[in-house]
Design a protein that fits this description.
Blueprint (H helix, E strand, L loop, with lengths): L6 H23 L5 H10 L9 E12 L9 E6 L8 E5 L2 E2 L5 E2 L6 E7 L10
Antiparallel strand pairs: 1-2, 1-6, 2-3, 4-5
Length: 127
């Protein structure tokens, strides 16, 4: 004798199936468009502000390296958390400007955020 399903189980399954079918129907109702056409459409949209791809990682100023010549500025070495081993330490000139336009310098142990930004046309896109 075949096993009969309870009415409450079949009602739940029917409701779930209807939700799946509705989402599939909504997706299928959209016009099909090639990836290149979608990208071209985004580029033509004047109201859209294109942002450059970027990532921000936390870091700490590991040390301040004084310059061998007085004409060159000192450098700050920043240990970037989450970067590959070879790229974990960055060295930059320790001549910065704050939000008011005044000169600022990093100090050893300071917490910093490092933002890496790429030009959109130079980004490798997955196919």
């Amino acid at each position: 004798m075949p096993h009969k399903k309870k009415k409450s189980e079949s009602a739940r399954e029917t409701h779930a199936n209807k939700a799946i079918h509705a989402s599939t129907a909504a997706e299928m109702a959209k016009p099909r468009m090639a990836r290149s056409a979608r990208i071209a459409e985004l580029n033509l949209d004047r109201a859209r502000i294109a942002e450059q791809p970027s990532v921000t990682l936390p870091g700490t100023v590991a040390k301040i390296i004084s310059s061998p010549r007085p004409s060159k500025p000192e450098r700050a070495q920043i240990a970037v958390e989450g970067a590959d081993r070879l790229y974990r330490n960055l060295r930059i000139e320790n001549t910065l400007t704050d939000e008011h336009g005044d000169d600022a310098k990093l100090e050893k142990g300071s917490r910093v955020d490092v933002t890496v930004t790429a030009e959109p046309k130079n980004v490798n896109r997955r196919k």
